[in-house]
Design brief:
Number of helices: 5
Number of domains: 3
Oligomer: single chain
Order of helices and strands: HHHHEEEEEEEEEEEEEEH
Helix content: 25-40%
Radius of gyration: 34 Å
Largest sheet: 9 strands, antiparallel
Number of strands: 14
Length: 321
């Protein structure tokens, strides 16, 4: 790495812009460069201070020798050198600049505060092997939060894993958990936590975890999503949002047409409402609005049997909204 601090900072910035470093990693490496630069400056200043002290002390010794010889030849009183002790005492030790913790250390500290473990661990619960592991720390408008993942090995069809959310109080040398929700976002069965998810500001006033998944049984596939807003008073999860259905795998000998539908979110009004436009074997619109802090379905078809629901014309439903 280049020795010059400016060159090092420029190289770190290029790595961040190219995706080689995350924002947190960039800030950590930048702090190390700036910290090293400050220490070097202080050391340089200290060298000059000690050099000045040494010169004064040498001068004092020479003056003492001269005074002694003068006394021996002229019997004149010798005046002691003043101020040497004061100058020596003023050269204080350099205070070390604390280096910020790495993201790896921050996650380990937060996970330990939340669970008592610094790394992933497994425990037995009602005969099941349940593993919990840290995911990452995210920055929210009001705090930082640790996200975790809990899953059940060989979980049953209806058993679900979870994404956990822990609001943190991070200090320079310690981390504590202010609030905890170890089962904030539910998975879709078989003991698994949500696999497809991301943090977004698109739907709600505060950041939210948008998670999607599905499960298949007896040739029927059902897909859905949830929106979990991370509010200061805790996570709030929406109604389940239907996004897909197919029973093509359950049809034998072409006894009937397959029911295949897809739903996509449209007409979004942030923190207020959105529609799920349904297309395929059935054309319709499901409407969601925000009530008491969460999105709830106002009109919604049965996504377990979407083709058995009352059909509606897409255009007429749009006009009703």
């Amino acid at each position: 790495m280049p020795a010059d601090p400016l060159d090092r900072l420029e190289r770190l910035n290029r790595l961040r812009e190219s995706g080689g470093l995350t924002e947190d990693e960039f800030q950590y490496e930048k702090a190390k460069v700036l910290s090293a630069t400050q220490v070097q400056k202080r050391l340089s200043a200290s060298v000059w201070v000690y050099a000045a002290v040494a010169l004064v002390m040498i001068g004092a010794v020479l003056a003492g020798v001269w005074a002694t010889r003068s006394h021996q030849t002229s019997n004149l009183p010798v005046r002691p050198m003043q101020g040497i002790a004061a100058i020596s005492d003023s050269a204080q030790p350099i205070a070390a600049t604390p280096i910020p913790r790495s993201m790896t250390d921050r996650v380990a500290d937060a996970f330990e505060a939340a669970t008592g473990h610094r790394v992933a661990f497994t425990k037995t619960d009602a005969g099941d092997e349940v593993t919990t592991q840290p995911i990452r720390i995210v920055r929210l408008p009001f705090a930082t939060a640790l996200l975790t993942k809990t899953e059940i090995k060989d979980g049953c069809h209806a058993c679900t894993g979870f994404i956990g959310v822990y609001y943190l109080d991070e200090q320079a040398e310690s981390t504590t958990v202010k609030q905890r929700w170890p089962k904030a976002v539910q998975g879709w069965g078989r003991g698994a936590a949500p696999v497809e998810w991301y943090l977004t500001n698109k739907f709600t006033a505060y950041p939210a975890i948008y998670a999607s998944g599905g499960f298949m049984g007896q040739g029927v596939l059902e897909e859905s999503s949830t929106i979990t807003e991370l509010r200061p008073d805790g996570p709030i999860t929406s109604d389940v949002i239907g996004t897909g259905f197919s029973d093509d795998g359950a049809i034998v000998d072409n006894e009937r047409p397959a029911c295949v539908v897809k739903g996509s979110i449209s007409n979004l009004r942030k923190d207020r409402s959105f529609d799920v436009v349904v297309r395929g074997s059935v054309n319709a619109v499901d409407h969601y609005t925000k009530k008491n802090g969460r999105f709830v379905a106002v009109t919604k078809r049965d996504w377990g049997l979407p083709c058995d629901s009352v059909d509606s014309d897409l255009a007429s439903v749009r006009q009703s909204h």
